[in-house]
Amino acid sequence: MRVLVVGSGGREHALAWAICASPLADQVYCAPGNAGIAADAECVPVAVRDTAGLIAFCRKAAIDFVAVGPEAPLVAGLVDALESAGIAAFGPSQAAAALEGSKGFLKDLCARENIPTAAYRRFRDAAAAKAYIAAEGAPIVVKADGLAAGKGVAVAATLAEAYAAVDAALGEGRFGAAGAEIVVEECLQGEEASFFALIDGVNALPLIAAQDHKRVGDGDIGPNTGGMGAYSPTPLVTPAAEGAVMERIILPTVRAMQRDGQPFKGVLYAGLMLTEAGPKLLEYNVRFGDPECQVLMMRLRSDILPALIATRDGILKEVDLRWYDETALCVVMAARGYPDDPQRGSEIRGLDAAASDPEVKIFHAGTRRDGDRLLADGGRVLGVTALGRDLAAARDRAYRAVDKVDWPEGFCRRDIGLHRD
């Protein structure tokens, strides 16, 4: 098969790397890819939002199957366009991608289907939102309804922070159309976990759970990011917890989407809060997480490509995935200034030495080549990922690799997974 992966981040590098290992894949392309992906697959200079360009490339290169990585093209309807052009694609339709594309849509679905989640209200008027916040008190969560590149959620510890988040979205228009409506919801208490399941429209196949670290600084301080590190498995998601998530959250969602004429096909990523009352849904993403995808692909023992095809074809019942027992841990190396104003263009050296351990894989998230030089070209730049017999061993191996990366302009958290010890 000739396969195209759409995207340019660490998630797409992990997917391309895993697909390249499939005996079914003769040729793997990535659009637009990055410098690291280019070592595993052939990169083509087509942007993720260039639907016409992607379809033209698929026809020219006789692509058999497309795996779409990021959320923006999914919410914009890329899978619909590919399928209409006769090109098989992994990912949800535009209608089904509303589970991530509109937080209000998701919360309303949860309310109708009795899916456990935080209490909420939707607002387009700032004064009404602030009156509700004043009545509820802090801490409280304010979310832009649409996609805001991971920056549209404010966990407000005080009323003043919550009011500022309302003003940013509804008053200043900081998130554009994505913030024209907001969701205000209660601040759930507990530990967060990431749960993944493949969905073929009817059937759901649970994958494995992971935990990530959202805050930029050690000890979970500083602003939220797209993710500074992750590990899998997590002891918090026990078999009993997995059963509860499937029964009370994932399957009711799948049934509701099918019933309402917008069946979901792809990977459903449930952001969970593990509360004293049981798992509750914080949000859905309609794609693999980043950096969670990196640890999932490191632990996956089975061939990923037949599972993605079966998800698209509606025959997921025939799939059985196997996983390595070892722990995988990913440390994200980011450019100075991230997440606000990351510095681009600094040179990165030492990756060959860092990746000399066969149990280490360095996934690129934001890199480009300038002749023989490797340059940082994004906020999150590298995902240094390692396998180990347990969490401590995986963490030690990952940080040994991190310490071999010669990149003074980069930084990382030094406590990924440490709270589990």
Describe, in plain words, how this protein is organized in 3D.
Helix content is 30%, strand content 28%. With 421 residues, the chain is an alpha+beta fold. It has four domains: 2-91, Rossmann fold, CATH 3.40.50; 125-180, Dna Ligase, domain 1, CATH 3.30.1490; 191-318, 2-Layer Sandwich (D-amino Acid Aminotransferase, Chain A, domain 1), CATH 3.30.470; 327-420, Phosphoribosylglycinamide synthetase, C-terminal domain (Glycinamide Ribonucleotide Synthetase, Chain A, domain 4). Helix 1 (10-20) packs parallel to helix 10 (292-299) and helix 7 runs antiparallel to helix 8 (159-171). The longest helix is centred in the middle third of the chain and has 21 residues, at 239-259. The model has no long low-confidence stretch (mean pLDDT 96).
